[in-house]
Backbone:
């Protein structure tokens, strides 16, 4: 048997070595199959546990949600349900309740209600406004009175003389307060869902409301 | 030539580990759809199970095909494990609330040992399992980080630097906070994708698991006992080395250890496991335990050590490796060190793909590989007058340093030139405190006065270690900070070294058996 010359690999060397490596790896097939299955099961368990689920009855007066429902991809607008329900009324083809993805606009609600009928005055409606859950969208005909800005349940309206109840007012009603925009109104609602107001002074703890704004507001609001 | 001999032992093990790591990398880096990867994995496993077993004398192609199938399965398994977790992170509820100004109620458990920040406060990683907003409660499971100020109500007197009770792994926290995006997140969520901002209130309840509570009690007792017996910096060093608890370590000592390249002593890893196993098994052997019971005792010891030291990546690596070797001892046929390392990497990456991105894991695997693969050749190249023991020690140190340097330089831009002398002097001193610290932890809860004895015994070692670290840190140009492309320099150097060793080996294979040399015994 002749020895290969020094410094040179035997011609078959590299391929043989690769084959040996693969054969060595191939000998682990049973262990690898078990490991791979275990990894698959573990990943499935991780997936199942990481999927957010609603537990317990919803505390709010909102529409009843099923006891456990998986979350449709968290939408930044309303991750709790991902949907809003609005009442479309007036000059539309199919007036009534429509359900839309959170963050939809008035235009989407009108489209979902089958579009407008002849004589609808679309200039009287802000088509770009974002919908909030539980509101009514009224499409007036030409010449009909334009609906008041906050189309909400109560008749509290714009009259600043009547103090708003911080614990029951809607976002739209809060929106009408001086110095309170949509964002701050939303924060007030978010704050009270965690801690219902017991005194008006707690308004100061809402992010975005400083002493000056509080002084403007304190006579306009109340706590029921 | 049909009878295939593994020409280069353990290279196939490396291939298994590398295939898994590559799969994890693919699943982490690219947003692969988990369903597809899982389907591919099922297919591969089905092929593996139904395919005919090829024995040693089989035809050439058969063995290679099985090997390719096995490697492909591991690739798919790694990708599946990583992509499922990445998809879970991307669909996380908290991530959907990033940027919302209002605070929400959350409940979760502390997932990792809280880390003290340089500017006060603690970084706490939580596993959030309950989120409450708009009057609804969601059950979920996602990680979030939060910086708790030292004065925070939940942490007051619990995260202090003293020896007392504190926020520990497994504790339940209730937090009222808003959500922001984390800066150092990783796709599979080991480093949490979100941080909780402006945490307001916090309820605090101890861990519900009795094992976690017991291990925290052991750690707290050990801290108290060492603090009462030793000077503060030595006490901090002792619990750091034995239990990986660096909370008592003074910042300037930490800095010195870092500069001296000795920080790895503060991460519980292979050395701790080895020392504890050696002592425990020696005792058991004296008591007349057989081979199997020795292995069983060893595995129990390893599990206890891993729990008490909080399953940091390095101790996980060491623990799984030791467990595999012990199983081999029990069954009579098992993997050697190199093979055990490869298998441990496969098992751990499939269990927690996030480990691949953890520096502690990378360093631990690299250093161990360096010891196992580079150590012997490095020892052989030393001049003949080196005594046998010193030769092994130097080889091990050289191998570990060379292998860990690229990871350190690439991620932290750190190259410690003082590390070599510091480790050569420091490593022989480290075994004592590692073992004595564990003895302190084991005895402190039952017999506090007994625990003072190992504390005192460890003191001289600790004084010497601190002296070594201070000396090495004060060396001029002891620690270099690399920037930009120079960060790759150590990696290039190690690649060259590996190439040199490979070429040498090839040359030796080519010219036939080496003449026997007395230097080869190690």
Residues:
């Amino acid at each position: 048997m002749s020895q290969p010359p020094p410094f040179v690999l035997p011609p078959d060397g590299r391929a043989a070595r690769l084959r040996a490596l693969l054969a060595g790896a191939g000998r682990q097939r049973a262990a690898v199959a078990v490991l791979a299955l275990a990894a698959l099961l573990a990943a499935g368990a991780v997936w199942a546990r990481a999927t957010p689920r609603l537990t317990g009855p919803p505390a709010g007066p909102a529409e009843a949600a099923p006891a456990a429902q998986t979350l449709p991809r968290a939408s930044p607008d309303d991750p709790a349900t991902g949907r809003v329900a609005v009442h479309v009324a007036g000059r539309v083809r199919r007036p009534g309740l429509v359900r839309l993805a959170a963050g939809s606009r008035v235009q989407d609600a009108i489209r979902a209600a089958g579009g407008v009928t002849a004589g609808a005055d679309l200039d009287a409606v802000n088509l770009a406004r974002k919908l909030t859950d539980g509101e009514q969208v009224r499409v007036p005909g030409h010449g009909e009175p334009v609906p008041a800005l906050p189309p909400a349940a109560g008749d509290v309206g714009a009259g600043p003389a009547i103090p708003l109840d911080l614990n029951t007012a809607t976002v739209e009603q809060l929106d009408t307060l001086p110095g309170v925009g949509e964002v701050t109104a939303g924060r007030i609602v978010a704050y009270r869902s965690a801690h219902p107001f017991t005194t008006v002074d707690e308004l100061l703890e809402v992010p975005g409301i400083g002493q000056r704004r509080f002084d403007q507001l304190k006579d306009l609001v109340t706590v029921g | 030539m049909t009878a295939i001999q593994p020409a280069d032992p353990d290279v196939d093990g490396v291939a298994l580990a590398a295939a898994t790591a590559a799969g994890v990398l693919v699943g982490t880096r690219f947003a692969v759809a988990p369903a597809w990867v899982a389907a591919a994995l099922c297919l591969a496993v089905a092929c593996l199970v139904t395919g005919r077993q090829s024995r040693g004398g089989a035809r050439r192609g058969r063995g290679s095909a099985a090997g390719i199938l096995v490697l492909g399965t591991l690739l798919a398994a790694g990708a599946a494990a990583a992509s499922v977790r990445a998809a879970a992170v991307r669909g996380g509820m908290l991530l959907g609330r990033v940027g919302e100004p209002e605070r929400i109620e959350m409940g979760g458990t502390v997932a990792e040992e809280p880390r003290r920040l340089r500017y006060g406060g603690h970084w706490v990683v939580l596993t959030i399992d309950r989120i409450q907003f708009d009057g609804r409660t969601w059950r979920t499971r996602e990680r979030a980080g939060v910086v708790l100020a030292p004065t925070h109500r939940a942490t007051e007197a619990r995260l202090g630097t003293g020896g007392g009770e504190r926020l520990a792994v497994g504790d339940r926290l209730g937090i009222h906070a808003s959500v922001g995006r984390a800066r150092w997140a990783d796709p599979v969520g080991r480093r949490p994708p979100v941080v909780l901002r402006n945490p307001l209130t916090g309820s605090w309840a101890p861990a519900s698991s009795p094992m976690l509570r017991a291990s925290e009690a052991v750690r707290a007792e050990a801290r108290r006992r060492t603090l009462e017996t030793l000077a503060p910096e030595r006490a901090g060093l002792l619990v750091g080395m034995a239990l990986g608890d660096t909370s008592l370590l003074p910042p300037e000592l930490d800095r010195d250890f870092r500069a001296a390249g000795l920080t790895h002593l503060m991460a519980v890893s292979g050395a701790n496991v080895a020392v504890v196993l050696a002592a425990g098994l020696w005792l058991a052997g004296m008591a007349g335990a057989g081979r199997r019971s020795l292995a069983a005792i060893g595995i129990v010891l390893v599990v206890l050590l891993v729990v008490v030291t909080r399953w940091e990546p390095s101790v996980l690596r060491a623990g799984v490796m030791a467990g595999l070797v012990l199983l081999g001892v029990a069954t009579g046929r098992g993997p050697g060190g190199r093979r055990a390392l490869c298998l441990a990497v496969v098992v751990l990456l499939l269990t927690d793909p996030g480990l691949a991105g953890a520096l502690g894991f990378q360093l631990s695997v690299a250093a161990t590989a360096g010891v196992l693969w580079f150590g012997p050749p490095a020892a052989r190249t030393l001049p003949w007058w080196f005594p046998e023991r010193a030769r092994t020690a130097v080889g091990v140190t050289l191998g570990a340093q060379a292998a860990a340097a690229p990871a350190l330089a690439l991620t932290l831009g750190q190259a410690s030139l003082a590390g070599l002398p510091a480790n050569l002097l420091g490593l022989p001193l480290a075994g004592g405190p590692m073992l004595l610290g564990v003895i302190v932890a084991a005895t402190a809860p039952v017999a506090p006065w007994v625990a003072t004895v190992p504390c005192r015994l460890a003191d001289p070692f600790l004084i010497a270690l601190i002296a070594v670290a201070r000396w090495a840190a004060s060396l001029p140009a002891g620690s270099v900070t690399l920037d930009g492309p120079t960060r790759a320099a150590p990696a290039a150097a190690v690649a060259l070294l590996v190439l040199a060793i490979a070429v040498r080996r090839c040359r030796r294979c080519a010219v036939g058996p080496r003449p026997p040399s007395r230097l080869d015994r190690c």
